[in-house]
User: Fold this.
Amino acid sequence: KKEWGQLRVFGAHGWGLGAPVFAQLISMTSYSVSFFFYPILGLAGVYVLHSTTKLGAPRPATKKDFGEVMRFLLQPEHQRTLLLLIFSTFMGAGLSIISTFLFVFLRNELDAPQLLLGLTITGMVIVEIPIFKYSEWLHKTFTDRQLLIISLASWSVRVVGYSYIGNPWLVLIFEPLHGMTFGCSWLAAVHALTAAFPEELTSSAFGLLYATVNGIGTITGTSLGGLGYGALGPRLFFRVAAVVMAVLALLYYLIDVRLEKSAMFERVPTAE
Assistant:
């Protein structure tokens, strides 16, 4: 849980540097250039990983039992972890809405140049990089609940901002908020699951996290987002989605505080 954020920094650098470069290449040629370079860069990454990584002693096998993971989460003492996982899935839906419909909005409504689409990714990781780099400090300063609420609230501000821009380049003002929407939500989820689950179940727990956030969340966000985008139009859709996410942030806070107080009350010894 201490190293995950610092390792994720390397991925953020790749996104931030590669996106504008390939956006410009695509604008100068065609989308086929991305399909050409994708396997080349992927194989290059595999080669570097293979040639620079020293394999240590094999770790003992961990259990891969999602049924046991669910039974673990459904225990009364783990209700707050389950709640955080549920609302992290809502955040996954929100992130899929942005990744799917922001470029559609910029290209179709504002006629944004291809280069700008790449630069939006660079803008996303400007704040994401320091958040992951200093993840250990963030965990010492903020609770998992606070990190997830920061994520949900930042998403609402970011999406409302989209709905008011007329010049496509103004989107770059709001993209640094991605560092808080994406970074804080994943730091909270990874930290909470690592703290809650025994070591032999952590692999399955992280599998469940990815399945819910990037699976259920993505399916929900793209499906409902498509319906909302088509029915309301982009600007009203973004505003309505922002209100929904803000309400979810408040709801998560109220439920989690109540669960926290209930757990504290149950731990207080009673006089006989």
Summary: Residues 34 and 195 are 40 Å apart (CA to CA). Confidence is low (pLDDT under 50) at residues 268-272. The radius of gyration is 21 Å. The longest helix spans residues 234-267.
